[in-house]
Design brief:
Length: about 700
């Protein structure tokens, strides 16, 4: 789950069926904007309540129902005896109401008979314990035995529903992961890891070299001697290259498993139904980018208020604007279609403290998804459960099964607003020029993120928090932002930010150089370019490959133990830092932007900028405590490029989508939505309190 910041892992898989989406259909026509739906568990409620519940879902104004992701015990109550009569009835009840259906493969929850008959399908945790039947995600998807059973149930589902016009699309599995248990150390996984390594390195000598195994006599003689790195089994620090490869393998293996399921469904569904899975918010061990070409849409699960503080005094009720918005901007950019498969409906049950969301927060999150371009928003779940592991979790209906909760009413409000927006959609609307001029990409690399996190050098460093400082700065300027992976065309963006991209090669640095020379404005931040793709430091000056590009040397970096903080002066202001500081030596022609104000290197340079060809390169070598230095320096980049920007408060997001402007207020303050005279307002108004939302169209004041 989103909550568990799982401890990572990565890899490939030997034989993988390609599951390319068939291109012909358009499952998400632009004019539909964003569809809104809900999870329903018919298997958990008396049959005579299903018609009432489904009719009430319709009455709320919702458009689709999501079912079946945990229902294997009902789909196949005994081995080989499939029973979809119950699901047929639920699907028909939805269809009769004009509701679309999203069906799921039930593979997170193998039935008890399967685990009893084949205990080898159960994962082994880091301490060597076999997990038991009783919750979910306990199976190992590396097991060929498990895959055989999965293949059969997915085949049955595809055969049965692949032609059913009520079925809109499919979700594979559910938050694929092993939750807090991290990775699976079963023999099946160990063997697949070894096969992956063999395919990657071919000879054991090459692996020994890549992993630096000459140190501590780590030399292997054959691939069969290798195990997944496991802190519980090794005495001192794990080999960082082995850890990074295990993360790559795990992510490859997960993507392969999803592809395996998708390929089966495609045989029956063709391009009539779309396929996705619901990734967890921070996708730390299972990588959505690896599935971008396999699915028509990438979806995720979002629970903004579960006892985390987030930004500002109301952050614990409103969630974090930047985190939410970052994930939307990342998944949307991966293949063009993004959605929220799960969005918190109200209070949840699994956080350390589970507060009530702020009144209006659920509506805020839905409209934020709309602003970010989401094609669908679905909520977990319709009815609050009366039994089972998720007691106390809100739904759209309360414990009586019929009365809408505050979240239910907010979903209903959003669904009706979406209807109004659809009726006013103008396909010809083009992105306003001033907004388009600020288009910015932030580069993200899961390899660099893993590698930095594997060896931070200081517990005060937060890899994602570092990138979010830049993201927040950009949203304050009102920039449309795409979070991009390396395969994207940098030239599509006037501005490009590269935060802490530690693992690079000459080709990537060459692309950055060409980008700036051709007129792009490039911002590179500390910890970038320090290692090669294997995770080795360069035999040469620190961060050697980027030095010619940034126009400076990096003399050394410093970190401070708590409670010490250092200071940096820039533009007449002083900023504090605590996690990471590089001391730079600018080349001739490179302009210093910030200097250290204390420590033994006071006066040393912390940030620089230079022009390069028709563009510019700015290097920021320090990570400030609160992001205010980053905000000031990023603002300077836009000023030097003479591109006008906005001045929104942190947490007040204003974006444009499909002809509509959307302002969302995640702050504790009252904010002013920048609605021009003559605009047509569809939701909210110019004055927005906390959780306030405004949606408007320029130059059309009829209502
Ligand atoms: C999600 C999960 C759902 C449900 C929900 C509760 O992460 O996918 O199945 O457990 O959390 O908030």
């Amino acid at each position: 789950m989103k909550r568990l910041w799982l401890s990572l892992l990565g890899g490939c898989a030997a034989l993988s069926l390609r599951a390319q989406p068939a291109p012909a259909s358009q499952p998400f026509p632009p004019a539909d904007l964003m569809r809104i739906g809900v999870y329903y568990y018919p298997e958990a409620w008396p049959r005579d309540q299903w018609p009432r519940d489904i009719a009430n879902i319709k009455k709320l104004g919702l458009e689709f129902v999501h079912m079946g992701e945990f229902a294997w015990a009902f789909d196949e109550p005994e081995e080989g005896k499939y029973d979809f009569t119950w699901l047929d009835r639920a699907v028909k009840l939805c269809a009769d109401q004009g509701l679309k259906v999203v069906l799921c493969t039930p593979t997170p929850t193998p039935p008890v008979w399967l685990s009893e008959r084949h205990p080898e399908i159960l994962m082994i945790d880091a301490q060597g314990r076999r997990m038991l039947h009783g919750t979910r995600e306990q199976a190992t998807w590396s097991s060929e035995v498990y895959r055989a059973y999965v293949g059969k149930i997915v085949d049955q589902l595809g055969r049965h529903y692949g032609n059913n016009p009520a079925v809109w699309g499919w979700q594979l599995d559910n938050e694929l992961s092993h939750y807090g248990k991290g990775i699976d150390y079963s023999e099946a996984s160990q063997q697949k890891f070894r096969a992956w390594l063999k395919a990657r390195y071919r000879t054991i000598g090459a692996l020994n070299e890549a992993w630096g195994n000459s140190f501590w006599s780590q030399m292997y003689q054959s691939f069969d001697q290798i195990h997944l790195p496991n802190e519980e089994e090794e005495v001192a620090q794990l080999n960082p290259h082995a850890v990074l490869d295990s993360q790559r393998w795990f992510a490859d293996e997960a993507a392969d498993y999803l592809r395996f399921q998708a390929a089966i469904l495609r045989k029956y569904a063709g391009n009539r139904q779309w396929i996705t899975t619901n990734f967890m918010q921070w996708y730390t061990s299972v990588d959505p980018a690896r599935s971008a070409k396999d699915f028509e849409i990438l979806t995720w699960t979002l629970y903004p208020a579960h006892g985390n503080l987030n930004e500002g005094p109301l952050g614990f009720r409103l969630g974090s604007a930047s985190e939410i918005s970052w994930v939307h901007d990342y998944l949307r950019t991966l293949n063009g279609n993004e959605g929220l498969m799960e969005l918190q409906p109200g209070q949840v049950n699994w956080g350390p403290v589970n507060p009530q969301p702020y009144p209006g927060a659920v509506h805020l999150w839905i409209l934020r998804a709309f602003a970010a371009g989401a094609k669908l928003v679905c909520t977990y779940r319709y009815r609050e459960p009366l039994a089972g592991s998720e007691l106390y979790h809100y739904g759209l209906a309360g414990t009586d099964g019929v009365t809408p909760t505050p979240g239910g009413l907010q979903y209903s409000q959003a669904a009706h607003e979406m209807d109004l927006l659809r009726r006013n959609y103008r396909p010809e609307a083009a992105m306003p020029a001033a907004y388009a001029a600020r288009r910015t990409a932030i580069l993200t690399s899961i390899d660099s993120r893993w590698d930095v996190d594997n060896h931070k050098q200081t517990v005060r460093w937060d890899t994602l928090g570092h990138a979010l400082k830049y993201y927040r700065a950009l949203k304050e300027l009102g920039c449309p932002t795409d979070v991009i992976t390396e395969d994207k065309d940098f030239g599509a963006y006037p501005f490009l930010v590269v935060p802490a991209d530690q693992l690079v090669d000459a080709a990537l640095v060459g692309r950055w150089r060409a980008y700036a020379e051709n007129g792009g404005h490039l911002v590179i931040t500390c910890r970038t370019g320090q290692k090669d793709r294997r995770g080795h430091l360069w035999e040469g000056p620190w961060a050697q490959p980027i030095l010619g590009l940034i126009g400076a040397k990096i003399k050394f970096y410093d970190v401070l133990p708590a409670p010490f903080v250092g200071h940096v002066a820039s533009g007449g202001r002083t900023f504090s830092w605590a996690s990471w500081a590089e001391v730079l030596a600018p080349d001739a022609g490179t302009e210093p932007l910030a200097q250290y104000a204390d420590q033994y290197y006071a006066g040393g340079v912390a940030a620089v900028t230079r022009t390069l060809g028709r563009g510019s390169v700015t290097y920021i070598g320090v990570d400030s405590e609160d992001g205010s230095l980053e905000a000031a320096l990023v603002r300077g980049v836009f000023a030097r490029a003479r591109v006008p920007v906005e001045r929104y408060d942190d947490g007040f997001l204003v974006d444009w989508r499909d002809g509509f402007w959307v302002a969302t207020n995640f702050t504790e303050k009252t904010e002013q939505a920048p609605i021009p005279p003559g605009a047509r307002i569809f939701s909210g108004g110019p004055v927005l309190g906390p959780a306030g939302v405004a949606v408007w169209q320029e130059g059309a004041s009829r209502r």
